[in-house]
């Protein structure tokens, strides 16, 4: 699952490489408006006649992409890093499938880490009771809970969590990297 997502991430990073250079921030209104200059983007890449990319850029999904990823100051993610810093690596890997597969696996691992930043905190599923388990006579009654011991465990957990790093990665806003200038595609 993660490797398929990593492949699509690479595809969209290649497809939209240089999109930030074609964003125009219009500050006429109280809320700034972000406009994407499609003709400039297609012209920079030499893809004015490309029907597929033109249709992608005219779609609602791309309009949402621009409005979400257009602001120059926001939380950056793996896609921003790929578009800004990995363009040359992706180009170099086009003729070398083993390197491409290795990069896809690295991206898949990063995607997994982003979704599960603390793998040691795993929840185990409780199995469903078997058919007719409620009819068993040999089930022992549930033991009484020792309130003092519960409080001890809670205090230990709180003390451990206060000394430990935060469980989730903080959303840190930064200036979105523009990436290298776009050249003509062959």
Automatic annotation (TrEMBL):
PANTHER family listed in its UniProt record: C-MYC PROMOTER-BINDING PROTEIN, DENN DOMAIN-CONTAINING PROTEIN 4
A GO BP annotation: regulation of Rab protein signal transduction
PROSITE patterns, per database record: DENN
Ranges for domain UDENN: 1-76
Recorded GO MF terms: guanyl-nucleotide exchange factor activity
Residues that span the membrane, as ranges: none
Stated name of the protein: MTMRD protein
GO cellular component: cytoplasmic vesicle
Domain of life where this protein originates: Eukaryota
InterPro entries: dDENN_dom (IPR005112), DENN_Domain_GEFs (IPR051696), Tripartite_DENN (IPR037516)
């Amino acid at each position: 699952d993660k490797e398929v997502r990593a492949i699509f991430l690479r595809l969209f990073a290649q497809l939209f490489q240089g999109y930030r250079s074609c964003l125009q921030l219009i500050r006429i209104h109280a809320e700034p408006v972000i406009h994407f200059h499609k003709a400039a983007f297609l012209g920079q890449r030499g893809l004015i006649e490309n029907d597929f990319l033109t249709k992608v850029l005219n779609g609602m999904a791309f309009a949402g992409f621009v409005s979400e990823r257009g602001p120059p100051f926001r939380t950056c993610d793996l896609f921003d890093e790929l578009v800004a810093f990995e363009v040359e690596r992706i180009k170099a890997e086009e003729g070398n499938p083993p390197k491409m597969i290795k990069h896809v696996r690295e991206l898949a691992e990063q995607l997994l880490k982003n979704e599960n930043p603390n793998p040691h905190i795993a929840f185990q599923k409780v199995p469903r009771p078997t058919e007719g388990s409620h009819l068993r006579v040999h089930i022992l009654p549930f033991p009484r809970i020792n309130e003092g011991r519960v409080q001890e465990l809670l205090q230990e957990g709180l003390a451990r969590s206060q000394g430990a790093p935060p469980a989730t990665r903080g959303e840190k806003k930064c200036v979105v990297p523009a990436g290298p200038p776009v050249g003509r595609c062959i």
